[in-house]
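Priority: medium. Attachment 1 of 2:
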C-alpha cells in the first residue's frame, strides 16, 4: 500500500519519518509545511484512511517539524522540531499529541 501526503509541493520528502502500529501509521512531511499525516487501517490490509493532519505551529519558518514517533498503542505522537525557536536560537522542541 502506498500512503501519500495531501500536498501540491514537489519537494516535500513525504515518508522521511514513518511510525506504524498495527492499525495506525504516522507519515512525516517535514519539508513542505512541516506536517504529520495520521492514517488508520481499514478492514483490509491495503485499506488506509487519512484521519488527521498535525501541522507545525510555525509553518512560515524552517523548524524541521516532522521527526516523529508514534506510541505502540497509537494514542501518543511525539514530534520533534529541531529548529523550533521556542528558547534560544534553533534550540528545538518536542511536541506531544
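Attachment 2 of 2:
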Amino acid at each position: 500500500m502506498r500512503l501519500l501526503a495531501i500536498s501540491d509541493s514537489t519537494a516535500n520528502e513525504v515518508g522521511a519519518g514513518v511510525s506504524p502500529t498495527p492499525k495506525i501509521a504516522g507519515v512525516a512531511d517535514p519539508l513542505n509545511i512541516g506536517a504529520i499525516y495520521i492514517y488508520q487501517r481499514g478492514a483490509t490490509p491495503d485499506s488506509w484512511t487519512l484521519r488527521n493532519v498535525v501541522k507545525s505551529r510555525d509553518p512560515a519558518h524552517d523548524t524541521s517539524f516532522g521527526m516523529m514517533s508514534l506510541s505502540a498503542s497509537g494514542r501518543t505522537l511525539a514530534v520533534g522540531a529541531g529548529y523550533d525557536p521556542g528558547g534560544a536560537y534553533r534550540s528545538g522542541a518536542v511536541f506531544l499529541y
